[in-house]
Write a structure and sequence with these properties.
single chain; 225 residues; globular
Length: 225
């Protein structure tokens, strides 16, 4: 996919800059409210509260906090970034690891959640295949996989259009988003350009309960095959 943004020829992605922009993009409270909306939409609020849930690409752990606020207590997370994992101050563990190789036993979790992490995978489809295979491995029979990821829609196209104009500097949130996209551009736009391949791969491992595409997002809930 040709990048719809122009970056300087000498531009080098910098994950420290990306992480700083991510931390500016929304406050922890704003992020938790967003997660709560998604959990309601995908039916997480109806799940038994004794489920063991793992969040991969957990970042600073606000997804875990939101799940705790719903009454779930058997939680842990996984993320590649020590810096972001250190932002989490809750009672649960965030394993600093590569989600393509989780340090967890087979069939040890009832649900695995990811919100905005899969589109950071560098090599598609191989990295996605390895990650989904790991998710399936750690899930118990009948376990659920929940994913929320960016998805190419007219709405997202409009967001891209306004994000890469001088107006971005007038709105700190928009500028933070544009900065994140710039520093993840290669994987982000590669992900957006391959919707059929991605859904086909997900279908190899899971049976869809809900697949919702709206407002530039894929919201997916599936059962372990």
């Amino acid at each position: 996919m040709t990048l719809p943004i122009r970056l300087p020829k000498d531009f080098q992605p910098n994950w420290d800059v990306w992480e700083s922009a991510y931390l500016r993009f929304s406050t922890p409270e704003q992020e938790r409210r967003k997660f709560h909306r998604r959990y309601r939409q995908l039916g997480v609020t109806e799940w038994p509260r004794d489920l063991e849930i793992l969040e991969i690409f957990a970042g600073r752990g606000n997804g875990l906090v939101a799940l705790s606020e719903l009454g779930f207590t058997r939680l842990d997370g996984a993320d590649l970034s020590p810096r972001l994992a250190a932002e989490y101050q809750g009672p649960h563990t965030i394993h600093v690891c590569d989600c393509r190789s989780l340090p967890l036993p087979d069939s040890s979790r009832d649900a695995v959640v990811v919100q905005g992490g899969l589109h950071h995978l560098i090599n598609l489809p191989d990295d996605l295949n390895h990650t989904l295979a790991e998710v399936r491995r750690v899930l118990r029979p009948g376990g659920r996989f929940l994913a929320v990821e960016p998805w190419h829609t007219p709405f997202l196209g409009f967001v891209h259009f306004i994000a890469f104009t001088p107006f971005r500097k007038a709105w700190k949130k928009l500028d933070a988003l544009a900065t994140m996209i710039e520093h993840e551009a290669e994987t982000y736009f590669n992900w957006l350009s391959r919707p059929v391949e991605i859904l086909d791969l997900i279908d190899r491992f899971f049976v869809s309960e809900k697949t919702i595409i709206q407002s530039g997002k894929l919201l997916y809930l599936g059962l372990r095959k």
